[in-house]
Amino acid sequence: MHFDSFADFINMGGHGLYVWLAYGLTATLLVINFVLPVMHKRQLQKEQARKLRREQQTQ
Amino acid sequence: MDKTGTEQISANTIGEVKSQVSTWRAFTGTLKRDLLLVFRRRSDIVNPLLFFSIAVTLFPLGISPEPEFLSEIAAGVLWVAALLATLLSLDSLFQQDMADGSLEQLVISPHPLSVLVLSKVLVHWLVTGLPLTLLAPLLAVMMFLPDEGFGTLFITLLLGTPTLSLIGAIGAALTVGLRRTGVLLTLLILPLYIPVLIFGTGAVTAAANGMDVLGHLAILGAMFMVALVMAPLAAGAALKISLNG
Amino acid sequence: MFDKFVAWFHRMGSPKWFYEITGRWIPWFGAAAVIFLLVGTVWGLAFAPQDYQQGNSFRIIYIHVPAAILAQSIFFAMAIAGGIGLIWKMKVADMVARSCAPIGATMTFVALFTGAVWGKPTWGAWWVWDARLTSMLILLFLYFGVIALQSAFDSKQSAARASAILSLVGVVNIPIIKYSVEWWNTLHQPATFTLTEKPAMPVEMWLPLLVMVIGFYCFFATVLMMRTRNEILEREKRTQWVQGLLSKK
Q1: Among B30, B37, B188, which residue's Cα sits nearest to residue B105?
Q2: Which residues of B touch C (CB under 8 A)?
Q3: pLDDT tens, A23-54?
Q4: Do chains C and A touch (3 or more CB pairs under 8 A)?
Q5: Which residues of B135-169 are buried (b: 16+ CB within 10 A; e: fewer)?
């Protein structure tokens, strides 16, 4: 472990703002990149379900 | 459609009646036809030049009329303005032919499409790049470009503007079938123009400071050669796609 | 060996087969991505020694460099996939190329943003016209161009082909742009302190970096497969097997 205490770790030798800003934004963007296709797939499944229901009603 | 029929149509579009036309004749035929069309619509020549002059005029007004300052940014301003003027004129490269259907005739003609594209690009350069190059020294006087830079400015524009037309043809071909093209074309093409801009202005700045510019010119020439070989092929392929979609 | 590869290549061209095989791969790549990224982040943030010059701000390297590497390799991957789609008229390759662009643009943005944030404590400014940052910015513009072109066409096939040509042209241009920006940079600036060129990094420093690079690649592979699968579902939605798949769950 490079740091002595947790507060030290957060502070990053005075560069905390920069390090955590960079890591925070990267983590957010990676999560968004992962979530978008998951949501897209759900939406595709919903559309298909709706289409099936429509077809069953008309028959 | 049989072979002679196809050739007949392509021959007709370039103003020839013979059914057997060599590729060279097709090239010159397209060239003549396009030049004739441009001379009937002279605004295509004048508008980019007007844009070029106005854009250059904005810089002293917007930043500073100080001669020392202007002479420092002159090369960059002239090059950026020439680049944008070329960009804005790219719409006319294929749009008209798309509208009247002659573009399709070019695509189905038996001649290699890249050769025909090359002749259209040549016309584009003759009516925009060349006049811009000729006008640039005049504007350079107004921008207080150091005397040593004039020759280099002229040569870099002479070498650089055909490269701009060639690269631009790819973008124009990709977007010709689309409804809204203006901003999209800019987005596609401007990043690809950056190397030409860097070496064009670099050469003029170097010359103004009394340095050797042969290296810059050699790189500009190399970029022109690469573009000359590859851009017509890419633009031809892009045209085929645009016509299908 | 080569025959096997050709056979595999042809099978990958079938959307159904691609969908099934990637369905089996995604959990593995996803798990690998999570493990590598977590290990690399903790290692890089908490255990790696600090840089003698830049102190702890140097820890941004563990996301900046992998993102920058990815940004460039994704563009190459996109152009290669686009080229395959263009030459062999392979639908799956088109979809892969299409799925590459948003991920690549994200990675480029991450590289730019982390570079700027890193620049503040190192150079004293958020933005410096450094050769690497500048060529990254141009790469971001190239990505935006490809994405804009993809969405400009009504037909997905034309969109795929047009953007394949654009990304191939872009790939030819990337080295030229990089070279000219580097040259321009040396002309305009005295050689400043560069971000990544360091005198021989010690093992404790670059090992976490390697872990992060692998993690980023696994992440890219996972998201790429997910996006491509969605593309397949969308484009093949009229086929029997896709309708069966979608209505099952």
Answers
A1: B30
A2: 170, 174-175, 177-178, 180, 184, 187-188, 190-192, 194-195, 198-199, 202, 219, 223, 226, 230, 234, 237-238, 241-242, 244-245
A3: 999 999 999 999 999 999 999 888 888 888 88
A4: yes
A5: bbbebbeebbbbeebbebbbbbbbbbbbbbbbbbb
- Residue numbers in A near C249 (CB within 8 A): 45
Residues of chain C with C-beta less than 8 angstroms from the C-beta of B180: 152
Domain assignments of chain C as residue spans, ordered by start: 25-194+201-248
Reading the block at residue B11, the tokens are 């021959």
Taking CB atoms and an 8 Å cutoff, what residues of chain B touch C154?
245
Tens of pLDDT, residue by residue over C84-134, are 999 988 889 999 999 999 999 999 999 999 988 888 888 888 888 888 888
Q: pLDDT band for position C38 (50/70/90)?
A: very high
C184:B184 CB<8 A: no
Contact C75, C171 (CB under 8 A): yes
ipTM over 0.90: no
Residues of A with CB under 8 A from a CB of C: 1-3, 9, 12-16, 18-19, 21-23, 25-26, 29-30, 32-34, 37-38, 40-41, 44-45, 48-49, 52
CB distance C59–A30 less than 8 Å?
no
Instruction: Provide the residue range defining the domain that includes B223.
Output: 3-244
Q: Are B55 and B88 in contact (CB under 8 A)?
A: no
Between B155 and B212, the more confident residue is B155
| Number of domain units in chain B | 1
The per-residue pLDDT of chain B, averaged, comes to 86
* Residues of chain B with C-beta less than 8 angstroms from the C-beta of C152: 175, 178, 180, 184
Chain segment B62-117, per-residue pLDDT in tens: 988 888 889 888 999 999 999 999 998 888 888 888 888 888 888 888 888 899 99
Whether the predicted model's global pTM rises above the 0.80 cut:
yes
- Are C101 and C147 in contact, with CB atoms under 8 Å apart? yes
Closest-CA distance of chain A to residue C2, Å: 34
Return the CATH class of domain C25-194+201-248. Answer: mainly alpha
